[in-house]
Amino acid sequence: MELLSAAYPWLKWLHILALISWMVGLFYLPRLFVYHAESSEPAVHATLTTMQHKLMKVIMTPAMLVTWLSGILLIASIGASGGWIWIKIAIVFALTGFHGVCGKWRKELAAGTSTHTGRFFRMMNEVPTLALIAIVGLVIFKPFS
Predict the structure, then answer these.
(1) What are phi and psi of 117, to 5 degrees?
(2) N or C: at which end does the chain have fewer Cβ atoms within 10 angstroms?
(3) What is the pLDDT of residues 15-24, one digit of tens each?
């Protein structure tokens, strides 16, 4: 426990960096889906499929895992008190689910079986933004403490 307390600033640093990387991917991937859904060019589809796959596998999923691990270690080092942290954790679970759904959509687009429109993906592109606004507000203002 003492080691975790000593590592707290480093864990917080790692958590913020991983969260930023994950969120950037969650902002960008649905935008790539918009381009994919609205294009009829096979070469564009191939390029976007590669970009989407690499974004998820190389950046987003590792960043999500580091976000979770560092967040769990932060909670272990200082504890979890106040209602705000539980709401934040619930939103992070929802973002994790959104990440999984994005993986499903990516596979459907790659296979040419997606029925979603560019407009649908534009709307889904707002989900991570709303989640981030809520998370940052909870962390800064700590309501329900």
Answers:
(1) -95, 170
(2) N
(3) 999 999 999 9
